[in-house]
Amino acid sequence: MKDVKERLSQLPDKPGVYIMKNSTDEIIYVGKAKSLKKRVRQYFGSYGKSGTKVRSMVSHIADFEYIIVDNEVESLILESNLIKNNHPKYNILLRDDKQYPYIKITVNEKYPRVMKTRRILKDGAKYFGPYPDIFAVNASIEAFEMLYPLRTCSLNLEKNLGKYKPCLNFYIKKCLGPCQGNVDEEKYNLMINEISDFLSNKSTKILDRLEDEMLVYSRNLEFEKAAEIRDRIKNLRELKERQVITNPMSINDKDVIGLAKGIDEVLVQIFFIRDGKIIGREHYMIDDYYNEPIDEILSSFIKQFYNAAAIIPKEILIEEDLEDKNLLEDWLSEKRKSKVNILSPKKGTKMELIKMVKKNALDMLDKYGDKYKKRAQSNILALEEISDTLSLDIKLNRIEAYDISNISGVESVGSMVVFENGEAKKSDYRKFRIKTIIGANDYGSLKEVLTRRFLRGLEEIKADSQKISSFSKFPDMIMMDGGKGQVNIAKEVLKELGVNITVIGLVKDDFHTTRGIIYNNKEYDLDLNSKGYKMIYKIQEEAHRFAINYHRSLRTRDMFKSELDDIKLIGPKRKINLLRHFKSLEKIKSASIEELKEVEGMNQKSAESLYNYFKGEKNDNKA
């Protein structure tokens, strides 16, 4: 690094965060300091020659930056955010980012909604949870939707009430359609109150209604329907047993953290105690190649875990005292808006709790550690195999895969999935609704998605932001779910933007199953039993899965769009009746005028308009 002495002399004697970078401008370490001047200088003095980890890191430092903040708490928050967004090589990193789900009732909105969330915001809504059983949460929300015709859309009804047309849910009686502006708000809120009372353990009306329905179905010998209701009741009861209304002031809320050290990894176990009851637990793996001290691992874990946590408990129990305990307590107290204590008890009930959690951590490490290590090693071999097959001179780490899909011939969507070190990094996944392309044009849609993705990344890099997002962090390889055409489109976009990234496509057999890779206009066959092929297949399947889930989310809002929207004299009611009568768009297209007239609400003119549209006279019949 040039002019290191001059750079060090210019460091301010103020609190802040320092960012170490290597020769490729990659962030390799992020740290906080009470005094940037004193702390950063240490790395280039005797401290930089101390432990294995520090020596290795210092040998790779090619540049450093710093950010000044007002106090140590701000530096801790900034450090945590930078570590989470950049995953520096020499920081202690969690391998997972799990948060239990909550049920949210948007009482801060006009005509509230009931939904699942993993984040608690200060928005005036009601939050219930956390719930360790995500299946029970999903099933319970489905039960609420079955019992109550509530809206699920995110329309702003404060400003635009009465200006919307109702969606399909209104016509199939799953929503009262408050968007039209003619729904009694008081009656609507009565339904919301029943759900809220159930989640608050104040009422069993919902369970009583379901049990009554189950008995009716059973008496009518409709046992399949009765079984469905029985399962809903079971899930709601499970939810009721596990649920705790979010109360940040509960004095019995505590998290208990224990860890178990392996050869080169650490398993951290955390138990969640709410209102005096253990409601769940979670584990996290941490790489420990440099045999970090337990207190440093605990400190890093607390910062990363609670930086994104929805709930901060009153107490956090750990096995060792921390050097930065007071700073962490100040930060957590600020997040919780009341005092948080980090305790390391040496005797009594709390000490027994830590022993219990540590025992569970040791047991899980025995079962889980080897499995994870084997999977990580298998991923490395798979990536090396792909790289060797293509004779690449780069080490594969980050791979992005793209998929374009059509929804009912009306609109296209694009999906981007990300894998790092062979594992899905779901926090970096992105969805794209195609804006500039009409119809099923995969090449055009692909070009739009890639242009938007990399143009956004270049803009963020140009802005010199310290925050590295999924856009500004470019991949080592792009994988297209297609052949030479898709690959060439990707190369064209990258060339126009001045970005140099390896692009591969997939070779399919006669049964549309991937059998190899296209790279630089050459096909490379893969052994279907090889690790490289299995990695490619896993990424491809994940791209498909993510795209399909996106389709489903769009269908809940836009599923009622179809070619019928473009036909003169075919309005919402006739459209509903046509689909109910014929069951599919294809049957409507093949129907005669007389058959169309049989549908409720259809007459001679509307039947002729619809018939002529599908017989080739579309231009004359568009509304």
Task: Record the SSE blueprint.
Layout: H1 4-9, E1 16-21, E2 27-33, H2 36-43, H3 52-59, E3 63-68, H4 72-86, E4 102-105, E5 114-117, E6 126-128, H5 134-147, H6 168-171, H7 185-199, H8 205-219, H9 223-242, E7 254-261, E8 265-274, E9 277-287, H10 294-307, E10 315-317, H11 325-336, E11 341-343, H12 348-389, E12 398-407, E13 411-420, E14 423-424, E15 430-433, H13 442-462, E16 477-480, H14 484-497, E17 502-508, E18 514-519, E19 522-525, H15 531-558, H16 572-582, H17 585-590, H18 593-597, H19 604-614, H20 618-621
Parallel strand pairs: 7-10, 10-11, 12-16, 16-17
Antiparallel strand pairs: 1-2, 1-3, 4-5, 4-6, 7-8, 8-9, 12-13, 13-14, 13-15, 17-18, 18-19
Helix pairs in contact: 4-11, 5-9, 8-9, 12-15, 13-14
Q: Could you please describe the fold and organization of this structure?
A:
The chain has about 625 residues and is α+β, with helices and mostly antiparallel strands. It folds into five domains: about 80 residues, GIY-YIG endonuclease, CATH 3.40.1440; about 140 residues, no CATH class; about 110 residues, Nucleotidyltransferase, domain 5 (2-Layer Sandwich), CATH 3.30.420; about 160 residues, UvrC, RNAse H endonuclease domain (Nucleotidyltransferase, domain 5, 2-Layer Sandwich), CATH 3.30.420; about 60 residues, DNA polymerase, domain 1, CATH 1.10.150. It is built from 20 helices and 19 strands. α11 links the parallel β10 and β11. α4 packs across α11 and α5 packs across α9. The longest helix is centred in the middle third of the chain and has 42 residues. It is globular, with a radius of gyration of 29 Å.
